[in-house]
């Protein structure tokens, strides 16, 4: 069975005279049948990581590490290899802001049928799985509500029957009802033997469907483990702060701002916001190697 094995991936951007350390030493394994949520505040590197996996990074990016999909290292593969064997076929991407990725002058049906032709899939069944009705398919992108555009994007990502679906902030801007329906669709996909990487800053969404949650801060995974453990017994102070800020828990959000990715401290990047920081934290904590892993010198 194929897994995705992300191993020590870092992504840097050259920006003017500065270097943006957007993704730092990230390792994560995703297996068929599971839904993994990658959560963290805006700007922590989630989209950059997804873009790296699919070869969508701009020219000013430098990537290290590996991301193995069977025999293929996605980070070393050529654009042609990714287009021929990975994008849409093994990994489907639901991009952030899907409406802006649809072609404005063509109906949803024509875009879906073309994708089905290229990828060898079935447009109707992908539309059905994404919760679209035939009448939705005859609309142009500007005639689709945010929820419907999201479903068209999901159908496009599913049409080639990829084993892994990466959904980047799929719930942004949707009503709670639509959010729950969409998340349940993702859960069903995982239960059918696909894998889902749900990228979100919405911990409630992760709570609803994820088997495992990886918490990212300033480009690093600071905690990863079974979803219920990360939510109910977070060990990293940042992850605990996120979990406490869930609507039903009603604690205050974590005060302060994340650091600039052009100027990361040598030690723990969370230290300026951390009530538990000690002198130890001037040294960078390393993610432990266990099923509920944490990168913190003084875990909760
Ligand atoms: N092409 C780029 N050049 C320079 N910096 C970039 C580029 N793309 C993204 N970044 C920076 O990388 C960081 C992570 O961005 P992103 O992955 O989009 O965050 P998010 O977790 O919100 O998805 C941000 O600081 C962003 O400004
Ligand atoms: S390593 Fe130190 S500063 Fe960082 S989260 Fe843990 S206790 Fe806080
Ligand atoms: Mg993003």
TrEMBL record:
Keyword Cell membrane in record = yes
Subcellular location(s): the record lists: Cell membrane
Q: Which reaction does it catalyse?
A: Ni(2+)(out) + ATP + H2O = Ni(2+)(in) + ADP + phosphate + H(+)
The UniProt entry's GO biological process terms, in alphabetical order, are: peptide transport
Q: Which SUPFAM superfamilies match?
A: P-loop containing nucleoside triphosphate hydrolases (SSF52540)
Which membrane topology describes this protein?
Peripheral membrane protein
What name goes with this protein?
Nickel import system ATP-binding protein NikD
Q: Name one GO molecular function term.
A: ATP hydrolysis activity
Source species: Lentzea fradiae
**UniProt subunit comment:** The complex is composed of two ATP-binding proteins (NikD and NikE), two transmembrane proteins (NikB and NikC) and a solute-binding protein (NikA).
GO CC field? plasma membrane
Q: Family, per the entry?
A: Belongs to the ABC transporter superfamily.
* Main subcellular localisation: membrane
Which Pfam families does UniProt cross-reference here?
ABC_tran, oligo_HPY
